[in-house]
């Protein structure tokens, strides 16, 4: 379990190296769909380690997992606002907050995901599926540049990225629906 | 029972926290894009026009303080621009036409500032101003030759200019309304020309009466 802690910290350190950070943020799609998710992964890995080391802690701060998942949804939605991505490039305080809040979101998700059971998981999954679809549509369809720091072209690429993820998520739903049925028969 | 209570407290706390995150992150649910946030911030800060040296289409060189004591309506442009700048200037011409001519040059100046001094020399600017029937006097077009001054102005007024890799630029556009002492009074939507003209006239009238 110590391994997940090391992996998490290592990813975090790599992401924080200035040239890598600046390179990733220079492309909108990598900023949104690689850097941000990786920061969540960092939190998830560290959460796994803490969960084993101090099992009581999560009991205290994240009783039945609902509060954790609410914070997780809020933080991830916050970083999907067109504004925040832009501000992270302009204001260091947003950038610092990004590197703290997203690992925290992953950290809480790790514990909540275990606790919220199947119904909660399906709810969250479908919530993100529709949200990603909406984001893809927003970025593809917008005739104007939404972000000041990224060109229209980059915005379109990100839109396709979101559509791609949504398509994968839909495929996953279909696949799991059909496999479940075949198992029952 | 105790556990249940704690869960309720935790959930309420997380909802309040999420609300705060969005409330402060969007300036009270007002600014969802960086552009709206930029205008909101400018209105809070009310920056002053930094002292820059302008060179206009008639090859006159002067400082911005030349306009001290007069209101000014500014736009930031570059003449090789094919999409938003002509629209921006066309709309500025609409506003310009709505201002009574006796006030032009006396109480208020119109000024289009180029952020592409390499290509926009006085000759180019002069050609450009004909398209919008700008007279070069009450509505001037000028470039800022000093790079440092230019970037400090763009910075102060929150104009972000990105080279698009094909010799052009992408930039945010608006009308900037500057007061007699060089203070930024308002950043107006360049698509709403009538609204902008009304606002300018109201300010002028209030000022001249008071």
Automatic annotation (TrEMBL), chain A:
Question: Keywords of this protein's UniProt record, alphabetized?
Answer: Membrane, Transmembrane, Transmembrane helix
Presence of keyword Lipid metabolism: no
**Position of the signal peptide:** none
Provide the transmembrane region boundaries. Answer: 5-23, 29-50, 57-79, 91-110, 122-140, 160-178
- The name under which this protein is listed is DUF1404 domain-containing protein
TrEMBL record, chain B:
Matching CDD domains? SCO
One annotated GO molecular function is:
metal ion binding
Q: What family does the Swiss-Prot or TrEMBL record give for this protein?
A: Belongs to the SCO1/2 family.
* Superkingdom assignment: Bacteria
User: InterPro entries, per this entry?
Assistant: SCO1/SenC (IPR003782), Thioredoxin-like_sf (IPR036249)
Q: Which residues does the annotation say bind Cu cation?
A: 81, 85, 171
Is Disulfide bond one of the keywords UniProt gives this record? yes
Q: What Pfam family is a match for this entry?
A: SCO1-SenC
User: For this UniProt entry, which segments traverse the membrane?
Assistant: 7-25
Q: What is this protein called?
A: SCO family protein
The answer to whether keyword Ribosomal protein applies is no
Tell me the lineage of the source organism.
Answer: Bacteria, Bacillati, Bacillota, Bacilli, Bacillales
Q: List the disulfide bonds.
A: 81-85
Alphabetical keyword list: Copper, Disulfide bond, Membrane, Metal-binding, Transmembrane, Transmembrane helix
